[in-house]
Amino acid sequence: MREKYSFDIKKTLYEFVSIQSDTGTKLEKNLEKYLLEFISQLSCFKEKKDFGTYRLNQDRLDREVVWALLKRDSDDTIILLNHHDVVDSYDYGEIKSFAYEPDTLRDKLKVFNLPQDVIRDISSGEWIFGRGSADMKAGIVIQLAVLDKLSRDKNFNGNILFLSVPDEETLSHGMRECTKLLLKLKTKYSLNYKLLINSEPHEREKEDEYIVYEGSVGKTMAVVYVRGKKSHIGQIFQGLNPSLIMSKIISNTEMNSELCDIRLGESSPPPSWSYCRDFKEVYDASIPEAAGGYLSFLTLERTPKDIISGLKKICEKSFTEAIKQANFNYKKFTNSNDELKWRVNVKQYSELYKAAKEYCGEKIDDILKETLDRIEGDIKEGKITIPESNFLIIKTLLNNVPYTEPIIVIAFSPPYYPHISNRDMKLSEDIEKLSEFIDTIARKDYKNVVKKREYFMGISDLSYAGLMDNDEVIPYIEPNMPLWNEKFYTIPFEAMKKLSIPIINIGPWGKDIHKMTERVYKPDIMSQTPWLIESVIRYLLKDKGDK
């Protein structure tokens, strides 16, 4: 029988949702502790202690990956991956205190002026509401149910490695560190990783269409710093306002569909700016000295090499447009044909660092270390964010090179998520036919159609299961990321290359992720999703145990 679990999935999900585990806070450790205790009570781990925690390196909150291994005689292993952090609940406003109580929250939501589909889902009784219900505590409980059920099947002869990571919603520190754990466990237990299954929620277009993903979108965050030429507003043409240049860059990039990445019939959303401002700290009658911002490119095949070279061309074009506009207005103002003597100057961060090194020698590294030490303290105290701190580093370098004219510097900021796709891996025949197999099971047992999507667009930890196009990633990310440092941010590229694990996302239907009406489809968590995951595991491990 399909429904054969030793614990109540719905009740367990309610328990997990009730434990607040806001990302980037000590609250994450609450769920780590509870999860470890929960695993220790499963029958298969009462005697065989193949479970534990793996502490993240250089983590100020001492967070840990929780892992558990069901080990049988085979080497073939399926990985079940999830994350136990959730976004905060401030968006719930006056009902924030009920965000972790699904039934009470559902009743409280009834008084709000909500969209019709939400009202319909509240009335149906088929949806569980609550912060983290869909993203992704449902996935944790589903995977635990499958792990426990297969552990009770004495004829099951494969291995299942359960991994629950922190920090997915922020910098994916948990998964980046988990790549090292995967290599350690692989060696210690002689494991052959066949497939990594994530259980992030999917969004359906039709009620009877279940969505699975065999890839995950990448994310590259670019930083743009513009230093203009400061002047009094009464002598405006003696200066060049960096805000003018930034406005041109934003105009040429924001929601520009020509910058979408298109592959395998799917398209990433266009880039968008998350932050932009001038860096003037006090009021005076002068234009800002500098301005900057950061934007995200979602990628399907475009590499950091492509992005930084493409962004440099856009910045050069924008700089030219700004100079042209300044000259047009200068000529009108002076009633002459004279032109301002500005020139286009755009550099990558790596080029700026090289120039500073040539000019200052080893001293520049000491100067940067002092800056980074100061930034570290400011980040801990919440005075500055990680993306914003890039501007301080760039400013430090510019203050130590003999540049006096306006300049644009472009760089990369954490977090970086490589895109990943099974299409770029050498796959076994059973992995190649995996989506077809899942579709067959879903049609037979649930009368649903399974639609395969090439890329999960929600950005996920799947990105770190392997590394594609490493020659166009590593040489461009590391030297152009000001915060690339053991204390702040690194990516285990070598570990990722060694892993190269095929991936799939099989998760429940979820709606309104990161919103106050976040919810997950009860029939999926109670039956369909755990059954599909179990069926995939048995199919890949050639298991014919007690189904």
In short:
The protein has 547 residues and is of the alpha/beta class. 38% of the residues lie in helices and 19% in strands.
Strand content is 15-25%
Query: Can you count the beta strands?
Result: 20
Please tell me what the overall shape is: elongated
Helix content: 25-40%
Uncertain spans: none
* CATH architecture grouping of the largest domain: 3-Layer(aba) Sandwich
Radius of gyration: 26 Å
User: How many structural domains in the coordinates?
Assistant: 2
Give the class-level CATH name of the largest domain: Alpha Beta
- Please give the order of strands in the largest beta sheet: 1-2-5-3-6-18
Mean pLDDT across residues: 95
Based on helices, strands and strand pairing, what is the structural class?
A: alpha/beta
Q: Can you say what the CATH homologous superfamily of the largest domain is?
A: Zn peptidases
Termini Cα gap: 6 Å
Q: What fold name goes in the CATH topology slot of the largest domain?
A: Aminopeptidase
Number of helices: 16
**Main β-sheet description:** 6 strands, mixed
What does it look like?
The protein is α/β, with parallel strands linked by helices. It has 2 domains: 9-216 and 419-466 and 501-540, Zn peptidases (Aminopeptidase), CATH 3.40.630; 218-417, Alpha-Beta Plaits (2-Layer Sandwich), CATH 3.30.70. The protein is 38% helix and 19% strand. It is built from 16 helices and 20 strands. It has a 6-stranded mixed beta sheet, with helices on both faces. It has a 5-stranded mixed beta sheet with strand order 12-13-9-15-14, sandwiched between helices. A 3-stranded antiparallel beta sheet has the order 4-20-19, with helices on both faces. Strand 19 and strand 20 form a beta hairpin. Helix 7 (242-253) packs across helix 8 (304-334) and helix 10 packs antiparallel against helix 11 (386-398). The longest helix has 31 residues, at 304-334. The mean pLDDT is 95.
